[in-house]
Amino acid sequence: MIVAAKHKIIIDTDTAGDDAAALILAAKSDTVQILGVTVAAGNVSLDQAALNSLAALELAGCDAPVYLGATAPLSGEEKECFSVYGRDGMGEADIIHPKGRPQSKGAIDYILDTVRENPGEIEIVALGPVTNIALAIRKDRETMMKVKRIWSMGTAGFGPGNATPVAEFNVYKDAPAYKVMLELGVPVTVIGLDMDDEPTWTDEAKLEEMKKGSEIQRFIATATRKLLEFKKGNGIPAVDLPDAVAMGCLVWPDFVEETTLCYGSCITDPGETYGMVIFYKEGFTYDSMPKIGKCNVSVVTKAKKNEFVDRLNAVYRS
Questions:
Q1: Helix (H) or strand (E) holding 317
Q2: What per-residue confidence (pLDDT) applies to 21?
């Protein structure tokens, strides 16, 4: 019997409730090996994101090191968005008390050193603004060209945004960084917001059941309680976990059913479309564009979304 090699991954994140759900999923998966977690400011401050990451990893029994990265976007210009997960990003329930602390090495150097030591083997799972990735590219593009693949929970996919009607939060927080990442030239798999729609939501009744379950289930249900309040305010009594959906696309080999090869272009000009990523589909002729640029992303367009919640809880109960 041939056993497939584990994906060697670095998770780059701005950990709030959905990032924590994704970290725990990866930590308990037998298909990936988390070499390290790099954090950037986004959902919460840099220091809070690090503490949240450490707490989630420790709960999952994972000792992967955590590295501090960017405190501000590439341009230095902050795009203000409020955290739907509360001030600490984890439900404001006083559940973040990790024993560990971040490493002294910075995130950018850690990413570059790890890729140099493992050329063609490292996959980066980007769950937040990609400032750390862009800074690593700017510091040593040649080394970053040796990344095997980047998995990005970013963009609205082919649906609506959440930061604005057309822009997704992670991209909106640092669109110039996302543009740098797309233009690197390594394979990128994008999991957009349209992959995190109603079949993947955990409704209020299921959250109440989770509160009676394992320690991990209780942790996630508590960490997302402010998100539930926000969603209910919009008439949706359920929480969405886009980062966990994105991680599922990597850790469950059969979860993704269809991807579409595209050329992705990130809008960085000021205005209403800032942070929007436009996807031009391979093989599709647009009236004003007989030929599009070289395809640089595979966009996940179909997955076993109806199975997501049950699969996730099965992992959290184990």
A1: helix 308-317
A2: 97
Q: Looking at the 3D structure of the chain, how many domains does it have?
A: 1
Residue 71 lies in a domain: yes
Confidence grade of residue 1 (pLDDT, cut at 50, 70, 90): very low
The answer to the question of residue 150 being in a domain is yes
Domain that holds residue 85: 7-317
Could you tell me the CATH number of the domain that includes residue 68? 3.90.245.10
Q: State in Å, rounded, how far the first CA of the chain is from the last one.
A: 25
DSSP state of 170: H
* CA–CA dist 292, 265 (Å, integer): 11
pLDDT above 90: residue 172: yes
Residue 104, pLDDT above cutoff 80:
yes
Which residues make beta-bridge pairs with 258? 302
Closest CA to 129 of 160, 94, 173, 92: 173
E strands present in 163-255: 188-191, 202-203, 238-239
Angle formed at CA 259 by CA 186 and CA 56, multiple of 5 degrees: 70
The Cα 62–Cα 258 span in angstroms is 31
123-159 per-position pLDDT tens digit = 999 999 999 999 999 999 999 999 999 999 999 999 9
Residue 40's nearest CA partner among 183, 193, 162, 154 is 154
Report which residue type is found at 209: E
- Asked if residue 1 is part of any domain, the answer here is no
Residue type, 36: G
Q: Is the pLDDT of residue 286 over 90?
A: no
Please state the φ and ψ torsions of residue 279, each to the nearest 5 degrees.
-110, 120
pLDDT tops 80 at residue 33: yes
Task: Kindly write down the DSSP assignment for every residue of 230-280, as one continuous string.
Answer: HHHHTT--EE--HHHHHHHHHHSTTTEEEEEEEEEEE--SSSTTTT-EEEE
Confidence of residue 4 (pLDDT cuts 50, 70, 90): low
Question: Over 70: is that where the pLDDT of 82 sits?
Answer: no
The 10 Å Cβ neighbour count of residue 232 is 13
* Residue 140 domain flag: yes
